[in-house]
Fold this sequence. Notes:
Layout: H1 2-23, E1 43-46, E2 51-53, H2 54-57, E3 61-67, H3 72-88, E4 93-99, H4 104-114, E5 119-122, H5 125-130, E6 139-143, E7 149-154, H6 159-170
Parallel strand pairs: 3-4, 4-5
Antiparallel strand pairs: 1-2, 1-5, 3-6, 6-7
Helix pairs in contact: 3-6
Amino acid sequence: MATSRKKYIVIAAVIVLLGCFLVGRRDLGPHFNEIPGHVNNFTAINVDGGKTTFQEQKGKVTLITLSASWCPACMAEIPSLKKMHQELGSRGFKILMVSEDDNVKAAARFKKKQNLPWTVVHWNYDLMNTLGNPGVLPVSYLINEQDSIVQINTGIFDEDAMRRAIKKLLH
């Protein structure tokens, strides 16, 4: 019985992983209630303690990424995010990660375990509605200095293309 249960878990994990990869190749429309063009200020719980706002956390160029510790595609993006943070952070690039984990404690453990150097906030309904309430993970929003969303990626983003887009905005 335990072997059969493990098979189902593995099959389910493979289906979820494949779904996350394929989603990035599909149109955004079906995954969003509304596709936003601008990020309005929002407030969220910082997993390191207290509350913070988008306005406090944004940079010259900001990448908001929706993620979760249980999402294999989200985990696959972390090395690319770390490289871009290290390479471009001194030029005004910031990452703001929105955790969709079940609670703030789980999100804080995720940040600590992954040694994430950027701010991680826990999701809330106002924040998610501001971002179009996507029904998929991961999602990345590339935002310029005027808070306009210049690019949205569903699924794992292409690191080279994202780096080029960020550098273009940083000029």
